[in-house]
Structure prediction request, 178 residues.
Amino acid sequence: MTPSVGQPSPPGKDPDALREALFARYRSPLMAFFRRRTGDAAEAEDLAHEVLVPVLQHADRKAVDNPDAFIFMTARNLLRDRARRADVRERAAPDVQLLNSVVEGVTPERVIQGKQDLSLAIAALGELGEKTRDIFVLARLERMTYREIAELYGVSVSAVEKHLVKAFAHLMDRTDRT
Prediction:
C-alpha cells in the first residue's frame, strides 16, 4: 500500500520509509514533468527530490484529498519560484557588473568630477521650463512610461517625446557631453 500524502504514517513506519515510498510512487512522473520543462535530466532529478521536502513537511500537518494534484501543484510552484529567482538574477546582473566596475574605479578625482557633473546637470535642469523638467524627471527618474506621463498631463505621447528631446538636447549642450 502506497502511503497517502498527509496521512499519518502507519504504526511502525518511520519518516524515511514514508519518504522512500512516496519517492518510489512519484519519481518517474515528477522526472517526466521536470524533464519536459527543463530539458535537463540532472536538473529534473534534483527538482524531483526538492518537491518531496515540502510535501513531507505538509504530510505531518493534515491529510490531502488529492495527493497527485498536491504534488504536481508543488512541482509547478517550485518551477515558478526558480524562474522568478532566475529572472531577478538576470535583471540584476548588469547592475552588479556596473556596480563592480564603478566601485573598482572610484578615485578622489572621479568623485570630484562626478559632483561637478551632477551640479552642471542640476543647473541645466533648472533652466528648463517646468513642464519639460517635470516630464524629464518622471520619465528618467521615476521611470513612468510615456503613455502614463501623457495621460497625467493631458497631452499626446508625441508631445511627451518632444519635451524629452528638448530636455536631452539642453542637458547635452550644457554639460558638453555627447
